[in-house]
Structures are given as structure tokens and as C-alpha cells.
Write a structure and sequence with these properties.
The protein has strands at residues 6-18, 25-35, 38-41, 45-47, 55-67. By secondary structure, it is an all-beta fold.
Length: 71
């Protein structure tokens, strides 16, 4: 974490649900699966545009979550 953003690693094997914050960037760095029903594999990224809502991750994925720092 720095003054501009924070990065966390998220590993999913199976199904996981979480609520990202608006403006969060999800970057797949390993594996394949689905992010909120859309296919996703290593090397792809998704930006959370709208106000935070629960999303579902399926498959075997390692993601980096980049978001504004905690307040």
C-alpha cells in the first residue's frame, strides 16, 4: 500500500463472492475462470465501473486487486 493505491492478491479455487469498490481493477495473473459470469484468463483485466456490488468469481484464478487506499 502507498498513498495512491493498494494491491492485494486474491486466489480462488472454486467459487468466491466479494464486493469490490468502484474504481477497483481486477487483474488475472494466473489460471482461468469467470468474473461475474464473463470468461477471464491470465493476462486480462476488468475495471469495476459502478458502485460496489457483490460479484462472483468461478474457476481457478489468481487475481491482483488494485484499488484506492483504505481511508
Amino acid at each position: 500500500e502507498c498513498g495512491h493505491f493498494r494491491v492485494d492478491r486474491l486466489r480462488v479455487d472454486g467459487v468466491a463472492r466479494f464486493t469490490p469498490r468502484a474504481g477497483e481493477l481486477l487483474i488475472a495473473i494466473e489460471g482461468a475462470g469467470e468474473l461475474d459470469g464473463e470468461p477471464c484468463r491470465a493476462g486480462e483485466a476488468r475495471m469495476v465501473q459502478d458502485a460496489a456490488r457483490e460479484i462472483e468469481i468461478r474457476g481457478s484464478l489468481t487475481l491482483l486487486r488494485a484499488c484506492p487506499p483504505s481511508s
